[in-house]
Predict the structure.
Amino acid sequence: MVDYDLLVPYGWTEAVANEYEALIMDGCVPARVIRMDRSECDVATPSGRARARCPRADAEISGLCTGDWVGIDAESNVRQLFPRRSAIVRSSVSGRSHGQVLAANVDTVLICTAADADVDLGRIERMLALAWESNAQPIVLLTKVDAALDIPIDEVRPIAPGATVLAVSASSGAGLDMLAAMLDGTVVLLGPSGAGKSTLANALLGRDVFVTNSVRTADKKGRHTTVHRELQPLPGGGTLIDTPGLRGIGLWNAAEGIEKTFSDLEALAEQCRFGDCAHNGEPGCAVGEAIDNGELTQRRFDSYRKLARENAWMAARTDKRLQAERERAWRDITKQHRRTYQERNSQRR
């Protein structure tokens, strides 16, 4: 009988066991991916931490990510990828019509932005859309508040309906007790370089696990210090995933995430006189009226339209790729049938 005690700090709970135990193949044990490298990964197993070999890129199991639950055999080969309960997915940085999983089986997303620099509201909205789409609960963090002359928390709260917005400092400890009390399950840190993610991660872990670096004084831009996504147990229970800084945050199939991020705007749109209102000056447009009276900013409306257009464009690219793959599969089947008929005819002769 397998003893799962050593998996508990890495997120093995009764709910996880109920979902995955029946799926474990004979000769395999469950493990969680702690860190990914090219062809190997660090995993937490019932026997402790280990190094496992990943399947080939062209294998049925591919695209493993930090936070995944997998099945490994006695030779430390990953044989199974268990269904993900949630996933943070962005469009591929290569521009291809494929999604890139940033973290898997996440319960809470900490969206980090430095309060001592220019706070990009549009970037926060973009990350909120990713977080909501994953089915995780987002928390927006204004970090480095000890170094900020002004904390724009009143500007951020209106753009994050349904999410908590906190001002924290890993250096002074401000807000950390409140944040720690809100963490649940597996937590992932998202944000650009220089947002203080690794410093905050070390503060939450209670020890220096992740390497940190200072930002450039001139423009407050961060240097890429974290280069891998890595999962660590939190001292109070649960796990934390630190991630490299995000430069590009392309949306991937995030229609529901956009709706939740802009739930205030969606509610206004339902009050428009016409159901197909385009919010371009039509009579009885509740969105236009809200902008005119200051209830909704033009910036937020423009951000909503930008993300919606981007998501629709990516969805169209994905549909074309899927259609091309289906057509290619049918061509292969047709060729195989033609080859079979030719062989039969040659045998009859």
Summary: The longest strand covers residues 29-36. The mean pLDDT is 87. The radius of gyration is 24 Å.
